[in-house]
Amino acid sequence: MSRQPEFSYGGQAVIEGIMIRGRSHFSLAVRREDGTISHIQEPLNTLFTGKVRRVPLLRGFLALVETLTLGIKALHQSANMAMVDQTPEGEQEISGWVLAGTLGVSLLLGVGIFFVLPQLIVTPIHSYLPSDLVINIIEGFFRLAILVGYIWAISFMKNIRRVFAYHGAEHMAVHTYEAGLPLSIENVRKFQTPHPRCGTAFLLTVVLVSILVFIFLGWPELHWRILSRIALLPVIAAVSYEIIRFSGLHQSWWIARQVAVPGLLLQRLTTRQPDDGQIEVAISAMESAIAADAGQQYVVRFPGPAEESSVAEGVTEGSLPTANADATSP
C-alpha cells in the first residue's frame, strides 16, 4: 500500500458538485443542467495557508473559520453554476454582504439549535436531579441527540440524498488519491464512502468534547451557562480538530482507528453510494485542485452528453502529481 501523502486534500459536497480544498487553491466542480461538468480554481486566502496554520490548536480555530466561509462561498457558487443554463445573465458574482449575512445566520442557527436549545430543554428538570454533573451530562446527550436526529431527518429529503451521494464520491476520490492510485471511476469504486477526516466526524467530536468540558462548569444562571458555551466553542473546536487530524494521519495505529469509529458510523447517514456521473464530478474536482496547486490549468476530461465520442483535451492522469510525489504539508 502507498504511504500516506504529505498533504491531506479534503472538501465538501455542494449543490450538484464537490469542492476540494488543496494546498494553496480550492477547486469546485459542478454538474450543469446540460450534463457537462463546469469547474473553477481559485487561490486560498493566505491567512489559511501560512505558518499560523501549522500552530497546534490555533490551526483548529482557523480551520473552523475557513470551513464556514469557504463552504458557504462554494454553496453559493455551485448553485449559480448548476443553474446557469436557466438564467439569461449566467453566473453572477456573490457579494461579500451576501456571504457575510449567510455566515451570520448559519452561526446563529447552529449556536441556537445545538447549544441554547439543550439548555432550555434541561433547565426545568434541574431541581429533580442529584447533582450539577448529572444535569450537564444529560444536556450533552440532548445535544448529541439533536445532531443525530437532525442528520437523520434531512436524509429523507431527495435533494439532500443527492448531496450525500456527492459527499460519498468526494470521500472515495480522496481515498483513491491517498492510496496513490490513478483517479478513474474503476479505482474510486474500490473504496468505501466514510473517511476518518470527514466534517461529520468533526461535528460529532465537537459534541463529545463539549460534554467532557461542560461537566466541569457547574450550573450557574442560564445566561452565564449560554455565554460560557459560546465562549468555549472555539477552544472545543480547536481540540476537536487536533483529535480528527491525529486520527486521520495515524490510521495504522489502533488508538487512532478507535477514535475514528464514532465518526465513521455517523457517516452511514451523511454519505451514499454515488453513481458514475457523481464520481466523474469528484474526480474533476480533485484533479482540478491538484493541477492548481501544481500551477497548471485544468480542462475537464469527462465528455458531456454531446461529446460522448470524444474526451476533452486537458490535464491527464499521468501529468498530475500523485499522492507520493508533489504533495506537501499544509
Low-confidence stretches: 309-319, 322-330
Question: Radius of gyration from the CA trace?
Answer: 21 Å
Mean pLDDT: 85
The domain tally reads 1
Q: If strands are numbered along the chain, what order do they take across the biggest sheet?
A: 1-2-3-4
Our measurement of the CA-to-CA distance between the termini, rounded to an integer number of angstroms, reads 23 Å
- Fraction of residues in helices? 40-55%
Instruction: Count up the helices.
Output: 9
Number of strands: 4
Assign an overall shape: globular
Assess the beta-strand content as a share of residues.
5-15%
Largest sheet: 4 strands, antiparallel
Classify the secondary structure makeup into a structural class.
alpha+beta
User: Would you list the SSEs in sequence order as H and E?
Assistant: EEEEHHHHHHHHH
Structural account:
- This protein is 54% helix and 7% strand.
- The protein is α+β, with helices and mostly antiparallel strands and 330 residues long.
- It has one domain (10-319).
- The chain starts with 9 loop residues before the first strand and ends in a 37-residue tail after the last helix.
- The model is unreliable at 309-319 and 322-330 (pLDDT under 50).
